[in-house]
Design goal:
CATH class of the largest domain: Alpha Beta
Oligomer: single chain
Number of domains: 2
Structural class: alpha/beta
Number of strands: 16
Shape: elongated
Order of helices and strands: EEEHHEEEEEHHEEEHEEEEEH
Distance between the termini: 27 Å
Largest sheet: 8 strands, antiparallel
Helix content: 25-40%
CATH topology of the largest domain: Protein Transport Mog1p, Chain A
CATH architecture of the largest domain: 3-Layer(aba) Sandwich
Length: about 325
């Protein structure tokens, strides 16, 4: 958890981490509950939910996710009051508990991973008033989102792991020296010149993963402009559209690609690129997410690009599935 700097002089911080490193007990944790990309906010009363505490949590977690053609929230925030926090709700995957106690001198934060279930992360913020509570929440929200994102990937991975497509996994291992948990349903559409196109085709939608490898010569190879140029070049050459002369490309005019450094990516330092793709010569498009990671031992760059085509339908959860697969990448 990030240190709280703005309140360092007066916040009493109590951190109770679940023992990820503790020995496993005979009694395994129950599987956590909750809808996909859902946060449960527990308050003492409806006034807290309808007031600035609830507003702060909703404004942050229900912000629209970038790159999706139709407006979709990053998370949906559900709500109950404290008396309803029974054993079932205590197993919610992403849990925030708010408490106001006027007798408190300093705010208190309590956190625990896998409190009543797994994967799970619970945080309780106690403060003397709603204004102070919101200020404390603001110091924690970015890290909370990262943890909740991780929980969502863990949830999908629980489903993917038993459905491993060993043929595809072995092909990636042979070509790139990587392992990636690719579930059944994907097939190899292209595999040449260190570019592999995995496709999952259904009656009404398409999902795809494009993996390509290039030499890593300089840090400039990880610049925004270079990553865009290389991605467009690879897709023009290897990812054709449905009609002659058509091909996939990044949308750089209406939905500009955004980048983020991901220092905790499983395979090492990585750069995330997110936005929308379109098809030159056709009316096709959708959201994508891509990660480029350095293999320092081989001086290579590996990019895994995931895309969704599902016209006029919600795509957030499908993109989350692709993100989960990509985050399983290891050398």
């Amino acid at each position: 958890m990030k240190k709280i700097n703005i309140f360092a002089l007066f916040i009493a911080l109590t951190v109770v981490f679940s023992a990820c490193s503790e020995k496993k007990t005979e009694n395994r944790k129950d599987r956590s509950v909750g809808g996909t990309s859902e946060v449960l906010f527990v308050t003492q009363n409806d006034d807290q939910w309808n007031g600035q505490m609830g507003q702060a949590v909703r404004d942050f977690f229900e912000e629209e996710q970038y790159g999706l053609p139709q407006p979709e929230k990053n998370f949906r925030v559900a709500h109950i009051n404290m008396p309803a926090l029974n054993d079932m709700f205590k197993k919610h995957r992403n849990l925030i508990i708010g408490e106001i106690n006027p007798d408190l001198t300093n705010p208190i934060i309590e956190t625990q991973a896998d409190w009543q279930a797994a994967p799970q992360y619970a945080i309780k913020i106690k403060a003397k008033d709603a204004e102070t509570w919101v200020k404390v929440f603001d110091t924690q929200k970015d890290e909370l989102k990262n943890i909740f994102d991780k929980n969502e990937r863990a949830r999908f991975m629980d489903f993917f792991r038993p459905m491993l497509n060993t043929k595809v996994v072995e092909a990636l291992k042979t070509t790139y020296g990587i392992t990636m948990t690719v579930p059944e349903g994907y097939y190899v559409a292209t595999n040449k010149d260190y570019c592999t196109w995995l496709r999952k085709e259904e009656a009404d939608k398409s999902l795809g993963l494009i993996i390509y490898q290039l030499p890593y010569k300089h840090t400039e190879d990880l610049s925004d402009a270079r990553l865009i140029k290389v991605c467009d070049s690879v897709m023009k050459k290897y990812i054709p559209g449905p009609s002659d002369g058509s091909y996939m490309a990044l949308d750089k005019e209406f939905v500009t690609p955004v980048f983020e450094v991901v220092p905790d990516f499983p395979a090492g330092y990585a750069v995330e690129m997110r936005g929308q793709w379109n098809t030159v010569g056709e009316f096709m498009g959708g959201p994508y997410i891509a990660y480029t990671v350095v293999n320092p031992e081989a001086n290579k760059l590996i990019t895994v690009y995931g895309y969704v085509y599902y016209p006029n339908k919600a795509k957030r959860d499908l993109l989350r599935q692709l993100e989960t697969i990509i985050w399983s990448l290891k050398f």
